[in-house]
Amino acid sequence: MTKKKHLYEVDLMRCFFMFGIVLNHVASTFAAALGNKATPAGRFSVSTHLILHFPRFGFMFITGLVLFLGYWGRPKKQNWLVFWKKRYIGSGIPYLFWNGLFLAFLLLTSGSFSWNKWLTGWLEAISKGNQFYFSPSVHPPAPNRRPGSTDSRENHHERTKIIRPQPAGPGHVPR
Question: Which stretches of the chain are assigned E, i.e. beta strand?
Fold first, then answer.
């Protein structure tokens, strides 16, 4: 089998999507710091943040493209067990390990470590994939929160909801 030609176009797409991820993170930071989303600046910030979600779809496309091109032209009979084993060992085991390690670090630094909390948190993290492992002390305090206080998940969601301005005047029916 001959060696396949390197596709510089895929490298260019990777750079483009990496730049998009950096922009998304910057926009997220500004949107969180802005607070009130009902202002024109807030709406612009939220719109920019939503527009900048394209990189995740781009990386999914690149992953499929590279896998397709890597297996294109190979013999028809593939050993799928070897294929999936390679993927799970290369991605799955590190995913499980780092989730466990980061969750343990988060619980230890917050002073609330217990094996039961760790296990339930780890199972939730690997099943939902929604953990970001930011310590509350790392974030600047919100305007309606005193420094050093902890925040419940419900309060966080309540504070970060998009506030839509309600029109006032005759005939106005609240939603």
Answer: none
CA 109 to chain centre: 22
pTM: 0.52
Q: Which of 100, 95, 44, 91 is nearest to 67 (CA)?
A: 91
Pick from 105, 134, 129, 104: nearest CA to 119? 104
Q: Which H or E element spans position 57?
A: helix 54-71
For the chain, the 3-state helix, strand and coil shares in percent, each to the nearest 5, are: 60, 0, 40
* Predicted confidence (pLDDT) per residue in 79-90, tens digit: 888 888 988 898
Average pLDDT over the chain, rounded to an integer: 76
Q: State residue 83's pLDDT score.
A: 83
User: Structure tokens of 112?
Assistant: 């609330």
Asked if 149 and 127 count as a contact pair (C-beta separation under 8 A), the reply is no
Evaluated on CA atoms 85, 89, 95, 101, the torsion sign reads positive
C-alpha to C-alpha distance for 153 and 105, rounded to whole angstroms: 19
For residue range 65-83, what is the model confidence (pLDDT) as tens digits?
988 888 887 777 778 888 8
